[in-house]
Predict the structure.
Amino acid sequence: MQYFIEVLVGGLLAGSMYSLVALGFVLIFKASGIFNFAQAAMVLFAAMFIAGMNQRYGVPFWLGIPITIVLMIGVAWIIERVVLRPLVNQEPIIMFMSTIGIFFALIGFAEIIWGSRSRSLDIGIPTDPIFVGDMLFQSYDLVSGIIAIVLVLLLALFAQRTRMGRVLRAVADDHQAAQSIGIRLNTVWVVVWAIAGFVAVVAGVVWGGNLGVQPVMVDVAFKALPVLLLGGLTSIPGAIIAGLIIGAGEALAEVYLGPIIGGGIDNWFAYVIAMAFMVYRPEGMFGEKIIERI
């Protein structure tokens, strides 16, 4: 039982990061109807930028963080203003394909500047094990999980309690009605894309400090996709709860099913869970069921 709790807590901490990245997807989708496939590339781009500045130019980590946040907010603004805004009235598939193009462009641009080799990233979080009673936890997992949980709660409060959050919900319900009462859609889109840029920095730094800054980070960031499918594309509570479910399920499956069916279960387990649930409820746990008359 003790080992089960250790694995479960570790999975929940990892799942909190999945929830954080998934919230970036949800906010953009709610505000603009765009499924931002490029979010994973933004995570890698942010991590490569801060690691590259540190190793090539000696920029300390504490200074690199605000610089990278400003950069990623700027990148997100450029993506929204230059690439996506001219496509607002196009079909959703065109918008989605444009984010795929942005995905490859960001990764290619980052590799041109910083190269494609793996880099270490020391963010100052200790890696020593911590004993809580007789249970053993990794201090890095605990600290990074707490950071993710705090930011997830702050984003949830932003969406539910602030004026901009109420504006976001109004836009998500009906774009035309929101415009008719004076809400500027362009402002809302800039805000949610800036939040996505900030989320990319946090996820890139935390995962980069643990895994090293390398292309495999994109695969980890894509774990937000099954989280979205499970929780619902437009649901903030769904993203939070589904992230924890995916993280815990993935950790438990790796420990208890991995020895039976082979290694690498963490690479596909989340997607299987999401697809299996979609057979029963395609809109996700908290997603909106849409009925269209033909």
Summary: The first strand starts at residue 129 and ends at 132.
